[in-house]
Automatic annotation (TrEMBL):
InterPro entries: Cyt_P450, Cyt_P450_sf, Cytochrome_P450_monoxygenase
Coiled-coil parts of chain: none
Family matches, as Gene3D superfamilies: Cytochrome P450
The protein, known as: Cytochrome P450
Length: 460
């Protein structure tokens, strides 16, 4: 056959097999575009030279403390997290403002374990009974979890049950942030601003249960609440639960054991550790070095370096068969001694919800498993852009789900193709727009201009 005649067949074969090869290629290409546009000469750890032992040492180093100033990457994160990225705890540089904000976050998260679990269980029961009334349903897990965590965080902040309107505003805000972060959609600043206005009215009315950071103006306090509780907290807990429930849907024996023995805290801890080992919520956490870091006799990481700490690579070290999901590995292993940092490293700005998250997630898992059996045939990846489609069968009803699962699998593979192309296009657009807006870069320039010049008395 002539090559010209072959071409249409090659095109048809490429199109038909696209679900198998296209998504990974597009993800790789997106990574390259991001690297190129951000312009940081970043060092990713662990790498061939510096393994897992050095990873922890460098991450914990006092000079690995810069968060935003001096990295092109920050313009992109600030763009995604707006409004108020400059007062988000994750992005504040060390100093009195950071300390004030971090202390305030601790106050909100400090309830007793029993009280926090009871609040999470009550919010889950209310939302599940309202949104999943039938015997069989096929939600996307992240979407199902968001209203639960919206209600939970509302209660942490305002100390009363969450009204429907507030829940919609919170879910609208959190979903908008995470969709933009995953490049499945563009940002909708007006949607986010609706929540800002609502929170402002509540702060002005004195409705917040704890004192807000005194170092911040009122509009900064509102942005702090929005960024920490109605974005990060809702997003992280919803993503974490989507991974956990999807894992249970695809490992029926693990699901059965958790459903049959809801009081077995140890087994739940193993399942959660294994879920977060394989699917850590952070792909990369970055730091900017505030001083030189001497790694060995031959290598010094100069001040101003952008360090990228890769959680998936670190979590994969020291395990046999690291890709496979196996909670039983934690029977022989302590999470403290393993290469395992789902909530970050204790000495360098770890997650303030380190204690709260597992116990609240356990309470919600119990509510879900008490009501439903879960099954799913979709692809489970760390970034989970599909939001985790899953079949929920009410306990006590018998349903043949085989045809539905086949349909889900095929739909998922084709959605992956369309989505990966969309992510590439929208991601590239947002990276360029973030670079044009330079939110972080301009913020730090303004701060430097306000600083008294060296030599002036105020400087001493
Ligand atoms: C499953 C749940 C969660 C996981 C796995 C998780 C994971 C993490 C990780 C790994 C970090 C450190 C990143 C780094 O070193 O840069 C972090 C930081 C942070 N997390 Fe979480 N998180 C979760 C839930 C939450 C919740 C519920 C909140 C609510 C307040 C929260 C708020 C924060 C904040 C404010 C930081 C920045 C800390 C700082 O820089 O001082 N996270 N989280």
């Amino acid at each position: 056959m002539k090559p010209v005649r072959l071409l249409p067949w090659v095109a048809v074969a490429a199109a038909l097999t696209a679900p198998r090869w296209l998504p990974q290629r597009v993800v790789a290409l997106r990574g390259k575009v991001f690297e190129l546009v951000n312009g940081d000469d970043a060092i990713t750890l662990p790498n061939e030279r510096f393994g897992p032992d050095r990873f922890r040492e460098v991450y914990s180093h006092p000079a690995a403390g810069g968060r935003s100033e001096g990295a092109g990457l920050s313009d992109l994160f600030w763009y995604w997290l707006s409004p108020g990225p400059e007062v988000h705890q994750e992005h504040l540089e060390a100093g009195p403002r950071y300390d004030d904000v971090a202390r305030t976050t601790q106050r909100f998260l400090a309830g007793s374990s029993d009280a926090l679990s009871a609040t999470a269980a009550r919010c889950a029961a209310k939302v599940l009974d309202e949104l999943v009334p039938g015997e069989l349903s096929v939600p996307r897990l992240r979407d199902l979890m968001m209203p639960i965590w919206a209600e939970f965080n509302y209660e942490l902040v305002f100390g009363e049950p969450c009204p429907r309107r507030a829940r919609e505003l919170i879910v609208g805000n959190a979903a908008d942030v995470v969709n933009a972060l995953k490049c499945t959609d563009l940002r909708h600043p007006r949607r986010r601003a609706r929540l800002t206005r609502y929170l402002r009215s509540r702060v002005d009315a004195g409705d917040v249960v704890h004192e807000l950071p005194g170092a911040l103006s009122t509009s900064e306090q509102v942005h702090y609440l929005q960024g920490t509780f109605f974005n990060t907290s809702v997003v992280q807990l919803s993503e974490g639960m989507a991974h956990l429930l999807l894992v249970l849907a695809q490992h029926p024996h693990v699901q059965r054991r958790l459903a049959d023995e809801p009081g077995d805290e140890r087994y739940f801890a193993h399942v959660l550790d294994e879920t977060m080992r394989v699917f850590p919520l952070f792909g990369i956490a970055h730091r900017i070095t505030t001083d030189d870091i001497r790694v060995d006799e031959r290598t010094t990481l100069p001040r101003g370096s952008v360090l990228c700490f890769s959680y998936p690579d670190y979590h994969a070290t020291g395990h046999q068969d690291p890709e496979s999901f196996d909670p039983s590995r934690w029977e022989r292993l302590s999470a403290k001694d393993a290469a395992h940092i789902p909530f970050g490293v204790a000495s360098n700005r770890p997650c303030p919800a380190w204690r709260l998250s597992p116990l609240a997630m356990r309470a919600v898992t119990r509510e879900v498993l008490a009501r439903f059996r879960l099954e799913s045939s979709v692809r489970h990846t760390r970034s989970l852009p599909s939001r985790g489609p899953c079949v929920l069968v009410r306990r006590g009803t018998a349903r043949d789900t085989r045809a539905l699962l086949r349909f889900l699998r095929v739909r998922d593979r084709w959605e992956d193709v369309e989505r990966s192309v969309r992510q590439l296009v929208l991601g590239t657009w947002m990276v360029l727009d973030a670079r044009r807006q330079r939110l972080a870069g301009r913020h730090f320039e303004r701060l430097r201009q306000q600083e008294p010049p060296p030599g002036c008395p105020a400087h001493r």
